[in-house]
Amino acid sequence: MVAWKSALPLLFAAALIIFEERVSVPSCKIVSVDRNDSSKIQKNGEDLKVMMVADLLLTGSEAGYTSLYFRDSYMAKFLRKSFERVKPDMLVVLGDVSAKGSELTNIKWISVLQQFQRMLDPFLGLPLHIVLGDRDVGDCSKINSKSVHRMANSLPGLDSAGCGAFEVSNISFISLNAVAMLCSSNDLRFSVETVIERESLDLRNHAKETTDVLSEPVKWRDDFENFHWRENPMASSSGPVLLLHFPLHRTSRICEGTNFPTTNLGQSHHESSRKPEHRGFVGAGPYEFFHTVPPNVTEYIFQALRPRIVFSAHTHHFCEHIHQDGTREVTVPAMTWFARDDPGFVVVTFGPDHSMTVSQCSLARESHVLMAYASVLVLLVSTILIASRSRMLVWANDLRHLTLPHGGYRGS
Questions:
Q1: Which fold has domain 27-363?
Q2: 334 within 8 A of 309, measured Cβ to Cβ
Q3: How far apart are the first and last CA of the chain?
Q4: What is the rounded distance in angstroms from the CA atom of residue 367 to the CA atom of residue 361?
Q5: Contact 281, 253 (CB under 8 A)
Q6: Would you list the domain boundaries of the chain?
Q7: Phi-psi map region of 364: left, alpha, beta (phi>0 left; psi -120 to 50 alpha)
Q8: Which of 62, 65, 186, 253 has its Cα between 20 and 30 A from that of 323?
Q9: 341-395: per-residue pLDDT in tens?
Q10: For residues 96 and 38, what is the distance between their CA atoms, to the nearest angstrom?
Q11: CB-side exposure of 190: number of CA atoms within 13 Å?
């Protein structure tokens, strides 16, 4: 009996290890299936499964004890188990790899990248693309070409403006530096606009109407301040997959598929978000205001790129939204407990018949894991106390058998 009780701590430790492994496995559910008319689309290969994560908020060498040995440790487990569960063909990180990358020196930024690389060990053999977030490059008062180039130079597939265009399994992707698009008086914004125009021209040149378009006079739109573009004959949702950190502007105030309110997405918000006091960091959690791409820039992107689907981040919550022109946007939740209690990610599967399936994956809540640890600790302490009391009772009983009736000791 005593031997069995002495083995209880080992049993608790084993149970805790099993719990950590089980709780790290994500739970995924399909939230939308898009099956377009495939009669006119040529099949071009197998499915492409892309895992989308966002807002890792790593701190590198500046990580505190809680982050280093608990939150970051669990996020590494989450990534490993998610890789085993999902078996993706590609990984996309939608910005904010660092909690405060814009404030880090080169050495500290390298420590963040090293921490990031260790966490992504299971994914290292896969195509990887990383979008720049505002915590990576700074807000409008701090962002500049030099800092963006420094970040972009250390991440795969980004140009000097922090944008990228690539193709995987015949699926085209374009990522834009959405941070620069919120800054009205920054040279980087015009660099991003140049990228959009270049990609738009390339898309039009590959469209079926190429011959007709080139033979017509060039038409320009100037309905929106500071943005001008050519008329694009391509149909909505016929362009590439668009990757951003900031969500695009929305007129709807309720996210489709969730009860999370988007109450600060109106025009008044965009005016206030440009003020310095609303563009700073607020700890590591969400901002006081949501930041979205302004309405004029959003319309410009729709007109120029005709994105097939948009993936964004920054709000730390999952959201699926259908824009007025029919373009679907999926906002990816934060992956870390540093941002929210219940982290998650998104998996999108692109089919060869132009179909598309989006799944939302949830991970364990930090509060539930802490409660489990606390419960195990209480049980362990209770077991130790009970075992100690049992030993004391046994010793007391043995001591009574050793004493004589008149207080003398045997053998005296």
A1: Purple Acid Phosphatase; chain A, domain 2 (3.60.21)
A2: no
A3: 34
A4: 18
A5: no
A6: 1-24+368-412, 27-363
A7: beta
A8: 186
A9: 889 999 999 998 788 999 999 998 988 888 877 877 777 676 666 666 666 666 6
A10: 37
A11: 4
